[in-house]
Every structure is written in C-alpha cells, then in structure tokens.
C-alpha cells in the first residue's frame, strides 16, 4: 500500500464526535503496551504518528486517523492496565461497546497480541466479544523479532488455540521492528478498501 496522506482527524468519546462520511474503518484493539501504536506507525511508514503507549490517566479516546483519504485506522485505548480504576474501566467498556456494536463503517477489528506469550484472559474476552457481534477480526501476533523464526509456528498455534480463532479470521505474524507481516496485513485489509 502506497501511503500518500495520514491525518489525525478527531479524538472521539461519543458517537456524535465520530467523523461523518462512509469511509471504511479498521479499529485497532489490544492490551496496553502490546505494540498497537508501533503497528500503526509501521503500516503507514511513520516513526511517531500514533501515540505510543496509552498510559493510565491519559484521556481514553478513540483516535481516528484518515489514511490516503480512503479509510480510517481507529486507535482504541488498550486494555489490561491493573492500575485503572473500576470507574475508568466501565467508561472504557461503554465507549468500546458503543463503537464496536453500532458503527456501520467499522469493517474489521485488528486485534494485536504478543506472539511470545499465550494470549491473556483479556485478549480472550476481547476476541469472544468480537465474535459474539460477528465482527471480522484480523489477529496480528506482533513482536515476532523477539523470538527465533523457528519458534513462530509453535507460538502461532498456541495463540490460535487459546483464542479459538474461527474460520475466516486470519492470524498474521508481525514485527514492527523488521516489517515482517506488513504486506500480509495490508492484503488482509485491502478487501474492504
Ligand atoms: P501500545 O501501548 O500498544 O501502543 O504499544 P507501543 O506501540 O507503544 O509499544 C510498546 C513497546 O513495545 C515499545 O517499547 C515498542 O518499541 C515495543 N514494540 C512494539 N512493537 C514491537 C515489535 O514488533 N518488536 C519489538 N522488538 N518491540 C516492539
């Protein structure tokens, strides 16, 4: 994918703030610190475009990035921070649920997990939630550069089994460090663009 433009359009909390128009949207979900921003930055060839690490206390917003004036990446605040209060967690849950379940422009969710480890219970819950609402999901198993290539298959199998990945959902081994999996990720998104 040749990237000709990237624009940060809006940080939204409520549906009234979502951008108008009917460009396709891809939401990025994942545990805090898993490498969501690094994934976006690698995909669009920018070093520091997407905010890195959503630290607790930071405003929890959906960030809409318009790419090539053709589609949006929607950066969703990460989950799994132990230090987040119950109130904040509830607000996060409501915001995500509203967006994921009502947004017609949402074509697929890119779920980022860490290839090195078995998916967490939060990862499993997120995937189950997406399948409950029948939202097409692309699972990106990132940080592949941190384990030897010979172990990729075995780790991917653990991820597939733990998440119980359904037929039709792809798992792509990725590295924001080396660019591994970038072309496959674009190919997976391309069918909706
Ligand atoms: P986010 O909170 O999910 O947006 O995570 P970030 O993109 O900020 O990444 C968290 C940390 O993991 C940072 O230190 C990144 O440099 C590192 N990281 C992210 N992706 C990769 C990757 O593919 N390989 C390696 N080695 N490090 C990565």
From TrEMBL:
Gene Ontology annotations for the cellular component aspect, listed alphabetically: cytosol
Cofactor(s) required, per the database record: Mg(2+)
Cited CDD domains: YihA_EngB
GO BP: division septum assembly
UniProt entry keywords in alphabetical sequence: Cell cycle, Cell division, GTP-binding, Magnesium, Metal-binding, Nucleotide-binding, Septation
Pfam families registered for this protein in UniProt: MMR_HSR1 (PF01926)
GO molecular function: GTP binding; metal ion binding
All residue ranges annotated as the EngB-type G domain in the record: 22-193
Residues in coiled coil: none
Function, in words: Necessary for normal cell division and for the maintenance of normal septation.
Family assignment from sequence similarity: Belongs to the TRAFAC class TrmE-Era-EngA-EngB-Septin-like GTPase superfamily. EngB GTPase family.
Protein name: Probable GTP-binding protein EngB
Native source species: Thermolongibacillus altinsuensis
């Amino acid at each position: 994918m040749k990237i000709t433009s990237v624009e940060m359009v809006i940080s939204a909390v409520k549906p009234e703030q979502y951008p108008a128009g009917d460009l396709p949207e891809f939401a990025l979900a994942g545990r805090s610190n898993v490498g969501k921003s690094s994934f976006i930055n690698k995909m669009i060839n920018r070093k520091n475009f997407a905010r890195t690490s959503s630290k607790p206390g930071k405003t929890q917003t959906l960030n809409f990035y318009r790419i090539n004036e053709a589609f949006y990446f929607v950066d969703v605040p990460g989950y799994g921070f132990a230090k987040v209060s119950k109130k904040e967690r509830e607000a996060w849950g409501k915001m995500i649920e509203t967006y994921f379940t009502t947004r017609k422009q949402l074509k697929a969710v890119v779920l980022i997990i860490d290839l090195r480890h078995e998916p967490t219970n939060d990862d499993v819950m997120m995937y189950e939630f997406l399948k409950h609402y029948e939202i097409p999901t692309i699972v990106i198993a990132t940080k592949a550069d941190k384990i030897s290539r010979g172990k990729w298959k075995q780790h991917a199998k653990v991820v597939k089994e733990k998440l119980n990945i359904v037929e039709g959902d792809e798992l792509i081994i990725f590295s924001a460090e080396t660019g591994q999996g970038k072309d496959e990720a674009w190919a997976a998104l391309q069918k909706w663009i």
